[in-house]
Amino acid sequence: MIIDEDLMMIKNTIRDIVTDKIKPLARVYDDEERFPEDSIQALRESEFLYMTIPEKYGGIGADTLTYATVCEEIARGCASTATIFAGNNSLGIGPILKYGTEEQKAKFLPRFTKEKGLGAFCLSEPHAGSDPGALSTRAVRDGDEWVINGSKFYITNAKEATVFIVFAKSNPELGSKGISAFIVPADTPGITVMPPEKKLGIKASVTSAMSFENVRIPSEYLLAKEGDGLRMALSILDKGRIAVAAQAVGIAQAAFEDSIKYAQERIQFGKPLSYFQAIQFKLADMATQIHAARLLYQEAAKLADMGKPFIKEAAIAKLFASEISTKVTHQAIQIHGGGGFLKDFEVERYYRDARITEIYEGTSEVMRMVIAREVIKG
Ligand SMILES: Cc1cc2nc3c(=O)[nH]c(=O)nc-3n(C[C@H](O)[C@H](O)[C@H](O)COP(=O)(O)OP(=O)(O)OC[C@H]3O[C@@H](n4cnc5c(N)ncnc54)[C@H](O)[C@@H]3O)c2cc1C
Hints:
The protein is α+β, with helices and mostly antiparallel strands. It has three domains: 5-118, Orthogonal Bundle (Butyryl-Coa Dehydrogenase, subunit A, domain 1), CATH 1.10.540.10; 119-226, Beta Barrel (Butyryl-CoA Dehydrogenase, subunit A, domain 2); 231-377, Up-down Bundle (Butyryl-CoA Dehydrogenase, subunit A, domain 3). The protein is 54% helix and 16% strand. It is built from ten helices and ten strands. It has a four-stranded mixed beta sheet. Strand 9 and strand 10 form a beta hairpin. Helix 3 packs antiparallel against helix 4 (79-99), helix 3 (64-77) crosses helix 6 and helix 8 runs antiparallel to helix 9 (347-354). It starts with a helix and ends with a helix. Flavin-adenine dinucleotide is lined by residues 87, 91, 120-124, 129-130, 154-156, 199, 207, 356, 359-361, 363, 365-366.
């Protein structure tokens, strides 16, 4: 898709920030498995960190295409930072924007803009991953309060968040129709965030298990209607997948650019690697796959911005982009030979980072289930 001048300007702005301030730190944060505070600060200062919040609440009101384009650029420099950024916008801010009342927006959105906090989305549980309807965290009404008890796992931004979106069963007898969503301030007593998980990739984004023990919140922190939680969670994830697809494209793009550079510099048999057709064809395949994946997420984003159905397109974009990201980063290591296997080059990080895009916000198997459901229903 040929993007317009305004979006091109934003793309160039975020590209400069990523090139100057984020990409140079990515390897250090990854090695140290440390939250990329300086990279997040660069996004805070430029207001990209909470870019989906409308201007009237202190944000910049970015549409989905702009948001996804920025996500791609961030991922091109640091996939961990892109995870934190997307976790904040799609999953932390998204539910409040889409389902919050005016009072909830006025109360909680400044936590992202003025207080510069992060949001986290607490859906997954040890026995409820691909099947979130099976979650068992409980919310019980007690007068003017809700009392939440239970455990969550794999929660992005849990340690850094100031606001949690928590999904819990308020009426277990109704099964998945008894799930409700709540806004829970992170400083509410009874919340424990476990130490960060050790991961294969996106090591600088913090992922933690959490527990809720008699966590009391006012009744007005319920999001939308009681029993609507699962529908809301799935709808938030439908859109969030566009950003994950963009993240996958960003990682693949970085691996592709490094591969071209290396293929032009590395001499074997008296010629640069780029002279050999076997290497040229790998680069051609990478270019083709990245181009197609980018078009797919852009189309899904455009549909979302136009208020048209986009669930199938978002799932197709995430499925395709995440799988080609794995393939492209795999081939990038191949082009770099032994060096690609070492930490001497960035491609080993891209290879590890790409893998998560096939798993979170719905695995590739779940994407195929969503696409199949959409195409079969016609
Ligand atoms: C780094 C990281 C960050 C995350 N961040 C968050 C977050 O912020 N908030 C949050 O709520 N969750 C988060 N998650 C959880 C993530 O969304 C889940 O890991 C994912 O949905 C898969 O669930 P699972 O791990 O329990 O796998 P399972 O559901 O146990 O699936 C295991 C395998 O079985 C397959 N499978 C399952 N059911 C079927 C089926 N019916 N048909 C065919 N195949 C099937 C899956 O596709 C997968 O391949 C995160 C996970 C990771 C690793």
